[in-house]
């Protein structure tokens, strides 16, 4: 499969955010990744999942939601990585950029969030219901999305490791708020980071099926002025 790889800088508000794009020749959709606390767009787990999605005909966008300067501050204080409002606002801005600039073409958009990035993805999905067609959370903290959970209208898959008991409980609470748009799947034998053999492959497979199924039912995003 012919693929186009590129690194771009995406303007969001008053910042410029670096992102890695991987686009199959004829993508059926594009998935924007929101990494977890203390991670980056180079996260090996997210990169591995992205490769699986690419193989299913989905474009992927892995982006750093903090600028290099902000990341240096966050490395000392660990405050910005938990600023769900800030991260969600930037994700929503990137969704808008994808819809207007259309680097993947006029295709549906999905969000993949890990850890705290999952909360930001859900808040962004709630604010961009007309543009986001599916959400997947990996070992996420969807509970941190707060009141936005009840406003999500986008099909959302919550993936949690079977040995990650505390996070399972938090995801069950979030699932109750999501209602009928949410689904929780537990990956047996997996801890929080899905480091056990074969468990990340299961995450990628679940995510790929979720996105190809739900994005195929979604019309391309509308264009706001």
Largest sheet: 8 strands, mixed
Mean of residue pLDDT? 91
What's the total number of strands? 8
Structural class: alpha/beta
Number of domains: 1
- Cα separation of the termini: 35 Å
Gyration radius over CA: 16 Å
CATH first level: Alpha Beta
- CATH topology annotation: Rossmann fold
Give me the number of helical elements.
6
Shape: globular
The helix content is 25-40%
Estimated share of beta-strand residues: 25-35%
Unreliable parts? none
**Order of the strands making up the biggest sheet:** 1-2-4-3-5-6-7-8
User: Would you identify the CATH architecture?
Assistant: 3-Layer(aba) Sandwich
| The CATH homologous superfamily | Alpha/Beta hydrolase fold, catalytic domain
> What is the succession of H and E elements?
EEEHEHHEHEEHEH
Brief characterization of the structure:
The chain has helices at about 45-55, 70-75, 85-100, 115-125, 165-180, 200-215; strands at about 5-10, 15-25, 30-35, 60-65, 110-115, 130-140, 155-160, 180-185.
Structural write-up:
This protein is of the alpha/beta class. Helices cover 37% and strands 25% of the residues. It has six helices and eight strands; from the N terminus they run E-E-E-H-E-H-H-E-H-E-E-H-E-H. Strand 3 (29-34), helix 1 (44-55) and strand 4 (58-63) form a beta-alpha-beta unit.
């Amino acid at each position: 499969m012919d693929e186009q790889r590129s690194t771009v800088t995406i303007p969001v508000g008053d910042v410029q955010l670096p992102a890695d794009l991987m686009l199959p020749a004829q993508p059926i959709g594009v998935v924007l990744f929101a990494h977890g606390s203390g991670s980056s767009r180079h996260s090996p787990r997210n990169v591995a999942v992205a490769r699986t999605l690419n193989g299913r005909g989905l474009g992927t966008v892995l982006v750093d939601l903090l600028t290099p300067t902000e990341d240096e501050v966050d490395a000392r204080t660990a405050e910005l990585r938990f600023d769900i409002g800030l991260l969600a606002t930037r994700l929503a801005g990137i969704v808008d950029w994808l819809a207007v600039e259309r680097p993947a073409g006029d295709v549906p958009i999905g969000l993949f969030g890990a850890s705290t990035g999952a909360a930001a993805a859900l808040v962004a999905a709630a604010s961009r219901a007309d543009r986001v067609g599916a959400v997947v959370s990996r070992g996420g903290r969807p509970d941190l999305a707060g009141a936005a959970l009840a406003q999500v209208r986008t099909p959302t898959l919550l993936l949690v490791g079977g040995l990650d008991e505390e996070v399972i409980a938090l995801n069950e609470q979030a699932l109750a708020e999501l209602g009928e748009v949410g689904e929780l799947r537990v990956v047996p034998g997996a801890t929080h980071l899905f480091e056990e053999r074969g468990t990340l492959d299961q995450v990628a497979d679940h995510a790929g099926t979720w996105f190809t199924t739900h994005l195929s039912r979604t019309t391309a995003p509308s264009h706001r002025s």
